[in-house]
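hey can u check if this looks right to u? its 495 residues, i copy pasted from the old doc so theres a chance i mangled smth
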Amino acid sequence: MREFSDQELVRREKCENIRKLGIDPFGHKFERTDYAEALKEKYKDVDHDAFENMNDTATVAGRIMFIRKMGKASFFSIKDKTGSIQIYISINDIGEESYNLFKTADIGDIVGVYGKVMKTKTGEVTIKCLKYTHLVKSLRPLPEKFHGLTDIEERYRRRYVDLMMNDDSRKIAFTRPKIIRCIQKFMDNRGFTEVETPILTTLLTGASARPFVTHHNTQDLDMYLRIALELPLKRLLVGGMEAVYEIGRTFRNEGMDPKHNPEFTLMEAYLAYSDLEGMMDLTEDMYQTIAKEVFGKMVYNWCGNEINLEGSWKRISMVDAIKEQTGIDFKKEMTVDEALKLAEEHHIEVQEHEHTVGHIINLFFEKYVEETLIQPTFLYGHPIEISPLTKKNPEDPRFVDRFELFIGGKEFANAYTELNDPIDQLERFENQLAERDLGNDEANDIDMDFIEALEYGMPPAGGIGYGIDRLCMLFTESESIRDVILFPTMKPLDK
């Protein structure tokens, strides 16, 4: 058993004294009728003197965050989910017994207050307590300066304390669901149907990523946690649902950094009879709708950059973007040896499974272009070798009809004119397996059921995947993915 600090011992003694008074120190149901921010907003323009002729009352509940005890009268503040409000409490208003109970209160305790709404001479909306109810005793003291913790990871590890102490964290926690509700409303209004697809899968498909592996005991079967949502959703297009989307957790067994978490929220959407251009229009419209309806502004400061979401966003091909930065024109036909020579001249390391012109083009993009795409940019025209599920460009089959949305030098979305040719698709799957033999542990399996589905006929379609966590980072102007995920993956303390 751990040793208690002096403060914890005092709090536990108070807890037992409360119990001796016949009061449950960990409380019961409390009928709350009002919230802090709503009260402050309602009475913000009422003059101090006007309250003399009013008898408005309120019942609030929350955590004590401040106490100033002054003999027979005191001030304290409580915080509920909306914010904080000041309470004035006096022995003359609630009686000696209740006031003595209040005097045992510590910062962190949860209490209920019924009282008369008033305003102090300094203009602060305050509740004059007429009935004080102890609800929950806090057995641990709250940190005095939570922002000053030497180990910043404690904010994420003990998120509940972070939410108590850090108003910015609370704001983000309540803002993220508003963003997601806005996205759902936006998609629903455009005729999309929200669906759910399996998290456990038997095949590694839909993206290039290393998976988490688990085991189904009853069937004695190894399974993966999904790395993407794509193939089940495209099966629904085959079935005739035509416009579908899913917002769900996906899992990739990869590194952690300020922009990546092993489990993250992905949204994928597929629209029959659309294409790449349709997905660009959908994306631009969705981001601008979130900006207007949730935040009321179009310019955001993110990772040191001022991002403007207004207007029509830049659209440029990958090879044109590389040419802008390096002068190299990958539109021209070239051999693998010629591309390898260019890579060597530019000090770009090429793995064995990347010995194709397409992979080398992508390596040039990652080195010279990606971090320069600050304002919203649709980058399209990816090499076929790095896009196994995408329709070939009819004018140049070396490239595919795919785009990525980049903002602030980071990828925010990935979209396609979907491949619906089952013969071509099977050939791409087989090429992926060949890459796995050369050491690419992110290569896809062959999903023969999906090939069978395509053989029934999937309509021409546009499809897109959005990283919801990164989207929330932009709109809340957060630099770490851990700020927008309530419970990010953390190393155990003993590690």
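The chain has two domains: 6-142, 163-313+375-483.
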